[in-house]
Amino acid sequence: MTYKLVALDLDGTLLTKEGQVLPRTKEVIGRIREQGTEVTLCTGRMFRSAFSIAEELKLTLPLITYNGGLVMSLDGREILYQRSLSVRHARRIIEEARKHSFAINYYYEDRLLVEEIKEQNRLYAQWTGVPLETVADLTALPFEPIKVLLMGEPEQLNAFGEECRQFLGDEVYITKSWSTYLEFMHPEATKGRGLAALARYLGIETNSIVGMGDSYNDLEMFSHVGLAVAMGNAHQAVKEAADYVTGTNEENGVAQALEKFILGKN
């Protein structure tokens, strides 16, 4: 099979725990692009956060960001796909989250809004390289966010996610990109739908795409690719859904898979 596109998750996949792209992985990405296989990023991160990594890798294709909630060209002039959360749902989620004292991020027009800067908010901003903007009351905002993200202890977030599914049903997409993150988006804001939109734009079939990821939000991406690759550090459910399990993000797992399936090395 000749693969035309590789879609890479960032945290836990392309990036190490220090947030770096390993030299070998960077070199292999350059080599597959030279031979005609293109690369994009497919991440839960904000566009402005993913953009710096795309620049480092000299990528040229639109990026799939916010878990598929925004697919946009690198120059920001062309939006291929966008889905936002309704104001009604965003307010309800925030009101319920306050009862549990979760740290809350609210994303609008590629800005990161918070009403209280907790330690989790500060660390998130530091990790992603995006500044925090404070507002008095997130529930008073009149516009639709692309995403609402809650941060807290994994067990508490899991329980809260189940509670929310009871009253939100299928009107909101709820997922986790990290054990301490719980994310809420429009039901059509998934990595799979974002990747499908990019495939239509490029005029390629989804079975000619390789997708690589490590967490639950990558499962939707796996359903829209010809080859699903899970990282060695991925959650067990992600490994079970994949066609192949490569090395970890600390072991050049992305490079290992690209060499095997794109460059033809055993």
Distance between the termini: 15 Å
What's the overall average pLDDT, rounded?
A: 96
Uncertain stretches: none
CATH superfamily of the largest domain: HAD superfamily/HAD-like
How many distinct domains?
Answer: 2
- H/E series, N to C? EHEHEEEHEEHEEHEEHEHEHEH
Describe the sheet with the most strands: 6 strands, mixed
Helix content: 25-40%
Separate helix tally: 9
Q: Largest beta sheet: what is the strand line-up?
A: 8-7-6-9-11-10
Measured by DSSP, the beta-strand proportion falls in 15-25%
Shape: globular
At the fold tier of CATH, the topology name of the largest domain is: Rossmann fold
CATH class of the largest domain: Alpha Beta
Number of strand segments: 14
CATH architecture of the largest domain: 3-Layer(aba) Sandwich
Rg, Cα atoms, Å: 18 Å
Quaternary arrangement of the chains shown?
Answer: single chain
Instruction: Determine the structural class based on helices, strands and strand pairing.
Output: alpha/beta
